[in-house]
Each structure stands twice: as C-alpha cells, then as structure tokens.
Design goal:
Layout lengths: L1 H22 L2 H5 L7 H14 L1 H13 L7 H11 L3 H7 L6 H21 L4 H10 L5 H14 L1 H12 L6 H11 L3 H6 L26 H6 L14 H4 L16 H11 L4 E4 L6 H18 L6 E5 L2 H16 L5 E4 L9 H7 L2 E5 H13 L12 E4 L10 H21 L9 E6 L10 H14 L4 E3 L11 E5 L8 H17 L10 H17 L2 H22 L2 H18 L13 H21 L7 H16 L5 E4 L3 H13 L1 H5 L4 E4 L13 H13 L4 E4 L14 E5 L5 H10 L6 E5 L6 H24 L2 H31 L7 E5 L5 E4 L3 E4 L3 E4 L2 H4 L2 E4 L6 E2 L3 E9 L5 E8 L2 E6 L4 E5 L2 E3 L17 H17 L1
Parallel strand pairs: 1-6, 1-7, 2-4, 2-5, 3-4, 5-6, 8-13, 9-11, 9-12, 10-11, 12-13
Antiparallel strand pairs: 14-15, 14-23, 16-17, 18-20, 19-20, 20-21, 21-22, 23-24
Helix pairs in contact: 1-4, 1-6, 3-4, 5-6, 8-9, 9-10, 15-16, 16-17, 19-20, 21-32, 21-33, 22-24, 22-26, 23-24, 24-25, 25-26, 31-32
Length: about 950
C-alpha cells in the first residue's frame, strides 16, 4: 500500500517538475531536507554555483524522488518547501494550486518581469528591497542575500537577485511590486510594467511606449539579465503575442493552456487535421478556442480571410459554447454568432456565414446549406468558404450521422483534388478539421484489432493526421469507484398482482410470451406483437399488446422506484384510455369494444389491492434503499456535496426527483434536487425545452440546486459544473457513456457509483465497459505507435472504401427515388379500429415536414381534444391540441395553426399504411415512406376559406 502511495507522489512530482524547478529556492529548502545525504546536498549546492538555480532545483527534485524512500519522505519534502518559503511549490504538491485564470495571469506577470528585466535592474535596489520586505514579499534571508549581492557586485546584480526571488511568490505579488515601484518614485519603471495586473497586457500593437523593442527581448538578453530559468514551458504567453491585440480589442484577448493542453494542440496550430481526445472536464473546448484564435490571427497576419464553423450535435450546446467559451474570449476582435433550431434570426445562414468570423451551429444546419449549394436550388454554403471546422463530440462521425455526411463531402473533394493536381489544375481549397471527443469508443468490438479498426475509421472519416491524447498528470482527478449490488425481494406482492393481470391478458388474447415479465426482452416482444396485430387487423391482440407493454413498464418501475410511482404510471395510462372514449361535446358515443371493457375492469378490480400494497414500505425494492443510503452518505460526509444521478427514462428521472423532494431526511441534510431530461418527442413523457434545461443547469451552477437526476442528455457535452459524486442508477449503456458520466465527477475526492436494479444487468455491463475502455486505450496507443506511412496507408484505404460505399448508397437511393410510389397507391387506416381514413392523394406537406389533410371528408372523421403537452409555438405555426378517431378515440395527430389557418396534422405512427395492397404498421416517421406528397398550397387554401366565409355572410 505504501509503495502505491509513493508511486502516486512520485508521478505527481514528475508531472509538476517543469514548474517546480522554477519556483523552488534551493538553498533554503535544502536546509530543511534532513532525509537527503550530505554528499548529495553538496552536489546540489555545486550545481547551484556552476549552472544556476533552475538546474540545481532540477537535481534536487531528482534526488527527492530517488528510491528507496524513507517513511514520510513526501510530507517532509512539502514541509521543507513551506519552511524554505516556497509556499507556491507546496500549494501545487498539496493539490491546492491557483485557479487556472489566476495561474495564467501569474505566468504572464513572470514572463513580463523576464522581458523587462534589462530596464528593471536599474531600480534603487536597497530602497525597493526594504519595501518588499515590509510587504512580506521577501523573508529575512532573502533580504540579507539581496543586500549582500548589492554590496559585493553592485545595485544591478542585487536587483536581479530581488526579481528572481519575488517571481517565485504566490500569485498577488505583482500588484504589490508595482505599488512599491510607484511609492519609491520609479515612475518610468511603473509605467513600463503597465500599472495594475489587469492592465499589464499592452494594447494597440505595441510592447511599450517607452521602448517598443523591449517588448520582444531575445532569450539571450533575458539570460544576461540575471533572471535564470523562469520560462514556464508552453503554458506561458509572450508579450510579443499579447501585443498583437487590435485596437479596441477585448480585455482578455489571450488564453493560457496547461502543458497537456498545449501538447495535444500543437499539430492543429501547425495547420494539421487532428482529433483531440481528452477526458470530460479537461478543457477540450478551451483548446479549441485557443486554436481558433491562433488560426484567425495567422490568416489575418497573412492578409487572408478566415472562417471558422463550430459544429455541435445538440441545440443547448450552441448557446453554451457561444456564451461561455468562444464569445467572451474572441469578441470583439472577431465576430462570433450562433445558429440553431431555436434561433430566431431573420436572415439566412448563408448571410450569417458571410458576415461573421466564427459561427457556432448544429451540424444539420450546415449540412442543409451545403446541400443547397450543391443542388443549386438556393444560395448555400460551400466547404471552400470555410477555413476551419471544429466538430464537437466527433466520435459520432460514423454510421451515416450528420457529421459523417458533412465529412463525406470533404473526403470526396479531397480525392478529387488529388486528381486535379495530377492534371495540373487548381484544387478546391478545403478547411482544416479539428475533432474533439472524450472517448472514440470501440464500436462494440470484443477484440483489440476490431477496436483499432473502429478508431482508425473515425480518424479516416475526419481525415485526421493524428489522434492526440495526453496524460493529465497533476490535473487528473482520481475517482473512488464502487458497484452496489442488490438483494432480491423476499416478497413482492405488488409485482405479483401486476403479473397476475398480465397472465390474465395473455389468456384472454391467447398469447404465449417466452421471456421474463418485467424485462427489456418482454417489452420488445410486446412491441412486435402490437405491430403485427395492427398489420393483421387483429384489434384484440393489438390493444392487449399495448396494455401488456404498459404493465411491463410498471413492473420495471416498481423495481426501480417506489411502488406508488409505478401505480401512478399505470393509473395515468388507464385514465388516458378511458378519456379517449369520451367526447367533449357528447354529441355521439365512441364505441368501447369487449376487449377494452375487459381491460378496464381488470385494472379496476385490482386497483384497490395495489394501492394498499404500495403504501407498505416493507415491500419496496432494495435498489431504492441502496440509493437512499448512498445519497445520505455523500451529503453527510462532505462539506459541500454536488452530484448527478443518471437513470434510464424520463419518467424515472422525474419520479426520483419527486421522491427526494418528498423525503424529509434528504431536506434535513441540505439536498436540493431537480431533474434534467431530453427535448425530443420520442417518449410519452413531456420533454424539457432548451430554456428549461438551461434554467435548471444555471441553478445547479449557482448552488441553488445540488443534485441533478438526469437521463443520458447530461452525459455528453452540456456545461455541468464539477461534481464530487456520480451515481448510475440501474442504467449502463456503452463505454463512451461510462467515460463521459465518470467525467462529470471531476472535483477533488469524487466518487462514481453504480447501483444495480433487478433485471437491469448493470453490474455485468459496467465490467464489460471497463474492459472496453482498457481495450480502447490500448488501441489508441497502437495507432499512435504506427509509423506515418503505415497510418496514412490505412486511413486512405478506409476513406476510399467509405467513398465507394457512399456511391453505392446513393445509387440505391436514386433507384428508390425512381420507385417512389404515387400518393394514390397509398391508403391509411386507423391503427386501433382499422377503418379506412384517407388516401395519399388527400395529404399535403408543409415546409417539407408536416403532413396535413385538409379535405372535408377527413374533418368528419375526427374529434378535437385538448392536450397541453402538445402545445408548442414556433415562428410560422403553433400546435394546440390533439385530433382523434371519432369511432374509437385513437389519437391521430395534432391540430396546428399555420399562418392563421387551422390544419389537422397527421402522425404516421398512429396509422396502418397500405401500399399497393401491402400493409405496414412499423413506420415511426414520415421520411420512411417511399412517397412524395405535394406541397401545401397556402394561397389556394386561404382563398377557398375566404370564399366559404363570404358565402356564410351572404346567407
């Protein structure tokens, strides 16, 4: 155990070596390092005399980490740093470094002192030294050393010694030093250094007004100034760079990267296409902002236009990247704009691209406008208009996703350019590509070679010359991970009642399932039975299969959350079914079939029994008990707990949040929960809008909330503050989701816990994901170890294969388009009662999206019902209620208000579709139908409506 801890301490020191060697006062620290032999101390002192403090500090660090170690060596080293007045070095080793912003500002101040040292050594050393000692910037030993240096070698040498000492202080020394220069009447030096820390970065393109050349001193002049070894590797920002800000530029035109961030960024800074693979929370987006700035700066310096597009795969990420990352740093030096499906911009995307330097948008918007440009049907956007494309969560660049569609255009043009060059023709310019991901995954691979192939294909799709990874070293936060298994219920009378009801339905509908009740397999079986029965016109089996699916979900919920929540879910479903059979105006009766009456009575007869059982806590599931204990433990053992619970469904997220809110034990220890769920409409549960998500996350960030219960929407991309615990509750997917959800717990001493749930198999899945993560890391290292020619050969092969597969797909698509059925060949029937509804000839399409039927015959077949969850308002239309079958009450779609006209909008999933005599019941979206419907003629319809109203007036 001790050797493991020693190993951790050794790695920590090694990771910090580059910084420590510049901030350790060797002589002072050596006095307190009693575990180092006297002979080694003499070697270090000799090194200090012959090669200077940086080299001596480097040797000291090497001696400290040498094995074997004495007990307590690391603590002794930290104590020596504290007693030797190296408090900043001790802060780093005690894992309490300055905040990144403070650290970056401090590094900048150190660099500025280096650069201005030839002028600063002309100070009145003794007077400045006295003031620095009074402000505790210097110790007694420091003061004596400076004064001795001044007496022996002169004021300039003493000043150089003073500067080399104060830059090793904790952040905050710079403003005090400037004030001392002002007080001691060094006005020219005070002005030279720029005033306060926030104003040290010279503007208007000049290093200083007094002496512009001094802003870009050579390394030789820095060394000659006597301040040795204070160059902070790649994280430093030179004054030459800072001086490049344009007039009226932002207060903060430069950002600082940590060492590991700069290391992964360098190929992109040289113009290469790369994938940056860093864990969630390690600052990938910050690296992207830095690369964007350098890209635009270099193109501006060359007199060339620069155009950067940042692509994301979720609407909330557009605003997040705009407001928290790109805009604060790059405006107003560069024009930054964001566009998504939620944007209310009144001009075209093409104009936005033309009028801005950086555009942050959802990938589908760019793809739509690339297609417009290619088809020539409208003004669009070309890849040649862009100079850098940044793809967030780039592991999605596969399997026909929108990222892949965009990159396929790129790859085709790239290989066309090869041909153009051979023909000595001008190639079409293509943008640089930068991919960002926390994990490329293994694509379901079970062996290393397949994992390697999966990652190489993603590299090929992104035309990446390298995949850049880096150990975070001192910045890595180690998590404590655990899996909580659950005990099976000794008794489950509530579940038994549900199973009894399901068995009765099986018998009634003559169904024989082969899988366990309350499992995912059973749900799939029920869905297949419902689809087949709808296709066959078997109303009894169709309705029974739908009820069985709901009861199965109730069983799953009773194993996941409270029995009362499961009962509430079932009760709500039955109320909705009964409501379907009622008509608001009661003008006619909706038929209730014998099957529906049987199902209604079956639930009604057992409802009271379930209500009684749901109130008995003795029958609650063990998973919920384990979760409760874990939450209480996290909040009672931490000074400030902040965590996320990931769960499978929207319904479970909402009900878990309610459970915590209703339990006084949680409130007593300060638990403040809320939920975050997705914005799509695939679920029966009402989705969350982007504004609602943003509001919850804002409260979580400010501390108004400290516990989020979330679906997978929170795993990837969303700006969620550092958490100190993450719990996956009965839901594990793949290794990418595991890595990303683990990454949410990036605060110090964070924990990652998996809570098992009956029939979920999460414990086994988590073990598989851990194996896949290890395999992924090995595959990445193997890819990085390939020589460039072998790597390039494989990438080219995969790209050519992808292009050929795309051509085959397009040929098939064209053939399919030729075979598109005539609307007259399509018939629609109600999914529930099977009555014929309309022909495809009656359907028209609005904005290439909404299918409407405006015939009078259709209006006589449906009733309107209020449905608050469907109410939605957009620029040109709004939905305000549902339409349902007048005969059986089956929902068909929604009533939409489009530019002042009320139109019935159909949802294909609610119908059985008959195409040339072949029935299909598995269509979930209109785009799956091989039919092209005519566009809705707004003017014609509005005119007919106007004529109708005129006729009514004349009557």
């Amino acid at each position: 155990m001790a050797s493991d801890i020693d190993g951790i301490h050794e790695r920590l020191i090694e990771d910090l070596r580059a910084r420590l060697r510049h901030i350790i006062k060797v002589e002072e620290v050596l006095q307190h390092l009693h575990f180092i032999e006297s002979t080694r101390k003499e070697q270090i002192k000799q090194k200090l005399i012959t090669e200077g403090p940086s080299s001596a500090a480097n040797l000291l660090i090497s001696v400290v980490v040498e094995k074997p170690h004495q007990d307590g060596w690391f603590t002794a080293f930290v104590d020596a740093l504290l007693h030797g007045d190296c408090k900043l070095a001790a802060d780093y080793l005690q894992l309490t470094p300055p905040d990144p912003e403070v650290e970056a500002e401090n590094d900048y101040c150190v660099k500025l002192i280096q650069l201005l040292a030839p002028s600063l050594v002309d100070m009145k050393t003794e007077e400045v030294c006295t003031h620095c000692f009074a402000q505790e910037l210097l110790t007694v030993d420091d003061k004596e050393k400076i004064l001795a240096e001044t007496r022996n070698k002169g004021s300039r040498s003493g000043a150089s010694e003073l500067l080399s000492i104060i830059v090793r202080c904790r952040p905050g020394w710079f403003s005090e030093f400037l004030e001392i220069l002002r007080k001691t009447e060094h006005q020219h030096l005070y002005e030279l250094t720029g005033g306060t820390p926030k104003c040290v970065k010279p503007n208007n393109g000049a290093a200083t007004e007094e002496n512009p050349a001094e802003g870009c001193q050579s390394e030789e002049s820095i060394e000659n100034s006597g301040i040795e070894g204070l160059q902070y590797d790649s994280t430093d920002i030179s004054v030459c760079q800072a001086a490049g800000a344009t007039e009226g530029g932002p207060e903060k035109t430069e950002i600082s990267l940590r060492d590991y961030q700069m290391e992964v960024a360098w190929p992109a800074l040289e113009g290469g296409n790369i994938i940056i693979c860093l864990p969630t929370g390690s600052g990938k987006t910050r690296v992207a902002v830095y690369i964007t700035q350098k890209h635009l700066d270099s193109r501006r310096a060359e007199g060339k236009p620069g155009k950067v597009v940042v692509l994301v795969n979720k609407i909330p990420l557009v605003e997040q990247h705009f407001s928290t990352e790109f805009s604060p740093i790059l405006k107003p030096k560069y024009k930054v704009e964001r566009v998504s499906g939620d944007s209310q911009l009144k001009i075209s995307f093409t104009k936005i691209v033309q009028g801005n330097d950086i555009i942050i948008c959802t990938a589908q918007i760019l793809e739509n406008y690339l297609e417009r440009a290619q088809s020539g049907e409208d003004e669009g956007v070309k890849l040649s208009d862009l100079t850098l494309i940044i793809i967030d969560e780039c592991h999605h660049t596969q399997k026909g996703g929108v990222y892949n569609h965009i990159m396929m255009r790129y790859l085709k043009q790239k290989h066309k350019n090869i041909k153009l060059k051979k023909e000595q023709k001008e190639p079409v310019p293509l943008p640089q590509i930068l991919g960002l991901t926390a994990s490329p995954g293994v694509g379901g691979a079970s062996i290393l070679s397949k994992a390697e192939e999966h990652i190489l294909r993603i590299c090929a799709n992104l035309d990446a010359s390298k995949i850049m990874t880096r150990s975070l070293g001192k910045d890595k936060k180690e998590q404590r991970k655990s899996i909580l298994t659950v005990e099976p219920r000794k008794e489950d009378p509530f579940g038994c009642v549900i199973k009894t009801i399901m068995t009765a339905i099986h018998k009634y509908a003559e169904l024989s399932p082969t899988c366990d009740l309350g499992s995912q397999n059973y749900e799939q079986w029920a869905v297949q039975k419902e689809r087949q029965a709808a296709k066959d016109g078997d109303q009894t089996v169709r309705v029974c299969a739908e009820y069985l699916r709901r009861y199965n979900e109730g069983l799953i919920l009773s194993n996941t959350i409270r029995m009362c929540d499961a009962l509430s879910y079932l009760n709500k479903f039955h109320e909705e079914q009964i409501k379907k059979k009622t008509v608001p105006d009661e003008e006619h009766n909706i038929q209730i079939t014998d099957t529906e009456r049987f199902l209604f009575n079956l639930f009604k007869d057992r409802k009271e029994e379930m209500e009684k059982l749901a109130k008995d806590p003795a029958y609650e599931n063990d998973s919920l008990s384990k979760l409760k204990t874990k939450i209480l433990q996290e909040f009672s053992s931490r000074k400030e707990a902040r965590g996320i619970i990931f769960t499978k469904t929207r319904h479970s997220a909402i009900t878990l949040s309610q459970w915590i809110q209703e339990n006084p034990k949680f409130a007593d220890i300060g638990v403040k929960p809320s939920y975050v769920i997705g914005g799509g409409d695939q679920s029966d549960t009402k989705p969350m809008t982007a504004a609602e998500q943003k509001d919850v996350l804002k409260k979580f960030k400010t501390g108004e909330l400290n516990l989020l219960i979330a679906t997978t929407v929170a795993e990837e991309g969303l700006d969620i503050p550092d958490c100190n615990f993450v719990i996956r509750y009965g839901h594990v997917t793949n290794e990418i989701a595991m890595i990303q959800s683990q990454g949410r717990g990036r605060a110090e001493d964070s924990t990652y816990t998996v809570v098992d749930v009956k029939n979920s198999g999460v414990a086994e899945k988590e073990c598989v994901n851990e194996y896949r993560e290890q395999m992924m890391n090995k595959a990445i290292q193997k890819i990085k170890a390939l020589n460039q020619s072998a790597y390039k050969k494989q990438i080219t092969e995969f790209q050519i294969q992808a292009i050929m597969e795309e051509r085959v797909r397009q040929v098939k698509q064209k053939k399919k388009a030729v075979k598109d059925e005539s609307p007259s060949a399509v018939k629609f029937s109600c999914r529930n009662c099977i009555q014929h509804i309309c022909s495809g000839e009656d359907i028209q399409i609005i904005e290439n999206m909404h299918r409407v039927n405006v015939t009078q015959q259709f209006r006589e077949l449906f009733i309107q019902r209020e449905n608050v969850s469907l109410q939605e308002r957009r620029l040109d239309y709004e939905t305000n209620g549902a339409i349902a079958c007048k005969a059986c009450g089956q929902t068909w779609g929604s009533m939409m208000m489009y530019r002042g006209i009320e139109l019935p909008c159909l949802h294909v999933k609610n119908f059985v579709v008959n195409i040339n005599g072949e029935k299909k019941s598995n269509y979930s979206k209109w785009s799956d139908l091989p039919v092209k419907f005519p566009a809705f003629d707004y003017i014609e319809h509005a005119s007919l409506m106007a004529q109708g109203s005129d006729d009514e007036d004349t009557e």
